[in-house]
Design goal:
Elements lengths: L14 H25 L2 H8 E4 L2 E4 L2 E4 L5 E7 L3 H12 L4 E6 L10 E5 L7 H15 L5 E8 L2 H4 L10 H12 L5 H10 L7 H6 L3 E7 L22 H10 L8 H8 L17 E7 L1 H14 L3 E4 L8 H18 L3 E7 L13 H12 L5 E7 L11 E5 L2 H7 L4 H6 L3 H8 L2 E2 L10 E7 L1
Parallel strand pairs: 4-5, 4-7, 5-6, 7-8, 8-9, 10-11
Antiparallel strand pairs: 1-2, 2-3, 11-15, 12-13, 12-15, 13-14
Helix pairs in contact: 1-11, 2-3, 7-9, 12-13
Length: 453
């Protein structure tokens, strides 16, 4: 049931009333975000797109007679790994078997599945164990088998196996860290990950061939680049080895890579990933059952219900966080002049090049960048990840408004200092403005919600 309410601004309010108003607007932003999370839940997406009747499985527009296959294997990987398997098992029943690799330990496992807890944002030992187990299971499939892949964000690190045995786990982690901290957008990061991996960039599809394959996608990547999801383990790769060399040069990565990785680049020894004409994809289908668009639509409904005039602007997807903050604040101020109250919603992700080792993530860094720019203004900004985890912090994101800088100063906190230290979580946790909801078992990118009145 939708219960989001949006208080309206009264210019005659006293200072205590304005404090109450600010608090209510922060709560309204949180409520809009929570509604978006609830409506873009895995279970609801599967209820719309997946069902099974008398052994015939429907996935979007495809039908699969499960009785006609000699074996059915389900492989689920990513932050929504367990949630997706649970939703599928609810529809198909207890006959399914397979492998689940996710970043969180579920309270209960689905019967018939072997579980791995891979690392995120960098791989761990179980990431490699999961990849090895999946590859072994796929090698036993044949032309009369059906493999159901369920793929969600985070899968790039949760399931991983280097293409070159000379790359150790420590080297792999160092490579990932260099990529994540480079400031490169996820599409460029994943181009490199794919070509260093035995499971990414369509290589799981190659391992499953000649089995019938279908992939259910819960996407945390732009709709125009579905093969970037978890680095596209079951899809034709649209990137090339030349893209990898270009990315490495663009972000000066060779000096940051460990020797085993650096050597592959220096020798131009990366192997090309399978493309669209590879036989592995001749019996493969892919369906996106949930994406950032689902969260955007749900947030829009909640904001409209709360009385806001809603606008959606995803222009700043993959922009640097500071540039994105400037753009969206300018945009909401323009809208504020035309109508009130107004809500500007932005989906996708911003990038952060980390140069100091604080605690936080891209959403909190974005919110903190907005804080000083809206000081004293009737603007509220929330930025949070739908997976419930932002960077290396326990928060999903944070919310700021025109009172944030003054409230922080009263506690001896400096927004600018926290911004420069990349230590946004410490700042927001102290103010009570961090959004701490825990892992959601889902991942459909980030939401930025800007309210103005």
């Amino acid at each position: 049931m939708l219960t989001v309410e949006g208080p309206l601004y009264n210019p005659r309010m006293t200072a205590p009333d304005r404090d109450t108003q600010s608090r209510q607007m922060r709560e309204t932003a949180r409520s809009i975000f929570q509604h978006a999370l609830a409506e873009s839940a895995i279970e609801k997406a599967f209820a719309r797109h997946v069902d099974c009747d008398r052994g015939v499985l429907r996935i979007c527009e495809d039908l699969y007679d499960l009785h006609s296959y000699s074996s059915v294997l389900a492989v689920s990987l990513g932050k929504a790994g367990h949630t997706m398997v649970e939703a599928l098992a609810d529809r198909v029943g207890s006959s399914l078997t397979g492998i689940v690799a996710s970043s969180a330990q579920p309270s209960a496992q689905v019967r018939g599945f072997r579980y791995f807890r891979g690392g995120h944002p960098t791989p761990n030992a179980e990431s490699i164990q999961a990849a090895s187990a999946i590859l072994r299971a796929l090698e036993t499939q044949n032309a009369s088998s059906l493999v159901i892949f369920m793929i969600s964000g985070g899968g790039s690190s949760i399931v991983e196996k280097p293409i070159d045995d000379e790359i150790s786990l420590d080297d792999l982690v160092a490579t990932y860290r260099a990529l994540v901290h480079s400031g490169a957008p996820i599409s460029e990061i994943n181009a490199v990950r794919k070509h260093l991996s035995a499971v990414k960039g369509g290589r799981l599809a190659q391992a499953a061939f000649p089995a019938q394959q279908v992939s259910l996608l819960v996407s945390d990547v732009p709709d125009s680049a579905p093969d970037a999801l978890a680095s596209g383990p079951t899809m034709p790769d649209s990137t090339s080895v030349e893209d990898c060399y270009r990315v490495a040069e663009k972000y000066a990565l060779l000096g940051q890579f460990p020797q085993s990785t650096r050597e592959l680049f220096e020798r131009h020894a990366l192997e090309e990933t399978p493309k669209v004409d590879d036989p592995a994809f001749s019996r493969a289908r892919w369906w996106t059952v949930l994406s950032n668009q689902s969260a955007l639509e749900a947030a829009s409904v909640a904001a409209e219900h709360a009385g806001f005039v809603v606008h959606v602007d995803n222009s700043c997807d993959d922009w640097d966080y500071a540039r994105a903050a400037e753009y969206l604040l300018d945009r909401v101020r323009e809208l504020q002049k035309q109508c009130s109250p107004v809500c500007l919603i932005s989906g996708g992700e911003v990038t952060v090049k980390v140069t100091n080792g604080g605690v936080g993530g891209r959403n909190q860094q974005f919110a903190l960048a907005c804080a000083e720019k809206i000081a004293g203004q009737h603007i509220t900004v929330l930025s949070a990840g739908t997976d419930g985890i932002d960077g290396n912090s326990p928060a999903a994101g944070a919310v700021v408004d025109g009172s944030t800088v003054d409230r922080a100063r009263a506690r001896g906190l400096s927004a600018q200092a926290a911004l420069e230290r990349f230590d946004a979580y410490t700042f927001f946790h102290a103010l009570g403005d961090a959004i701490e909801i825990g892992p959601t078992g889902n991942n459909v990118r980030d939401l930025r919600i800007l309210l103005a009145y």
